Recover the amino acids of this structure.
């Protein structure tokens, strides 16, 4: 938190469930806490006024500022001023749905490559949109069945018109249009075991326009598409207009923001559905590489960077007035599983 406050001129973090928040202002923006005025205005607007500039944060309609006071804690540095806020939250802001949470039966969708924007699957309508069981469901079958496992050595695959939803992927039936938009490429996957290494072949599917890997081939008729590699657009009026889609690769910053939004929304959905806050990210040979702990899913944040690169809300007095909208965020603690002792515990 201290590092974030030092990098940003003004940083705001609000907790909706606790109905409280923290405001950090860097020392080069204000020298005395008495020179800062923080107040709530109409339409859920939070105003921060300093001698040099004023800052406005647009909060969700159900969140309002009740009270604020300056508090200097023992561990507070001389590089910042810290203010505590008390909020009134009428209802929690709903978390945005991921791609998996947005798909509906009888709706028509087009699937685009996130890297270049080219169409990979067009005008897909699903008769069934069904969630797949949890990732370790097969290991629990014996606890529920009094007879031999009926699903042994069998995969759950979609039929034509089906869309099966995994934790981070979609299972879709291949159609004839895939030959024009996707490229198949076989790769060899090395899997390490306690006794000896073994390898298996895997068929990856890539975007024909930019060669970005979009998923893999489960069978000759079924595709597994990663939600971190695609954009899904519903067809509202007519077919999707290909001429409006950019075929230029996205900058790294855009790619990073897309991944953050996609993973954060999906983690929140899984946490709510499975009543857990602990997750692991695995590599293709099913070994955990990162452990995650999901915290503070009710957080709202806003920040104003230093310098002149900001959004000006006052055309007559540029540089004196900054405005932004509070964004939903989640706090994630993580640890890498590179340590051999940690791998044994996992």
């Amino acid at each position: 938190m201290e590092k974030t406050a030092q990098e940003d001129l003004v940083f705001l973090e609000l907790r909706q469930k606790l109905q409280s928040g923290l405001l950090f202002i860097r020392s080069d923006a204000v020298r005395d806490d008495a020179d800062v005025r923080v107040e709530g205005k109409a339409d859920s607007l939070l105003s921060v006024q300093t001698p040099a500039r004023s800052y406005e944060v647009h909060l969700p309609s159900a969140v309002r500022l009740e009270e604020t006071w300056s508090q200097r804690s023992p561990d507070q540095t001389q590089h910042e001023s810290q203010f505590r806020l008390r909020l009134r939250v009428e209802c929690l802001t709903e978390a945005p749905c991921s791609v998996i949470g947005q798909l509906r039966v009888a709706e028509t969708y087009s699937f685009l490559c996130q890297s270049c924007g080219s169409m990979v699957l067009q005008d897909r309508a699903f008769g069934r949109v069904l969630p797949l069981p949890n990732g370790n469901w097969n290991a629990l079958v014996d606890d529920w069945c009094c007879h031999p496992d009926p699903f042994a050595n069998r995969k759950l695959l979609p039929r034509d018109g089906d869309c099966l939803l995994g934790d981070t992927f979609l299972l879709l039936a291949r159609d004839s249009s895939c030959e024009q938009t996707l490229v198949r490429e076989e790769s060899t996957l090395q899997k390490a075991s306690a006794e000896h290494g073994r390898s298996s072949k895997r068929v990856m599917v890539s975007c024909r326009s930019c060669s970005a890997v979009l998923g893999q081939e489960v069978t000759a008729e079924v595709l597994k598409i990663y939600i971190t590699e695609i954009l899904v657009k519903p067809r509202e009026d007519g077919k999707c207009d290909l001429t409006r889609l950019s075929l230029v690769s996205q900058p790294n910053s855009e790619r990073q923001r897309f991944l953050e939004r996609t993973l954060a929304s999906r983690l929140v959905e899984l946490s709510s559905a499975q009543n857990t806050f602990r997750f692991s990210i695995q590599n293709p040979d099913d070994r955990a590489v990162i452990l995650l702990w999901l915290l503070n899913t009710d957080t709202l944040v806003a920040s104003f960077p230093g310098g002149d690169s900001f959004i000006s809300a006052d055309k007559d007095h540029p540089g004196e007035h900054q405005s932004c909208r509070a964004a939903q965020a989640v706090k994630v603690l993580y640890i890498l599983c590179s340590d051999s002792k940690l791998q044994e515990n996992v």
About this structure: The chain has two domains: 2-93+298-330, 99-251. The radius of gyration is 25 Å. The first strand starts at residue 8 and ends at 15.
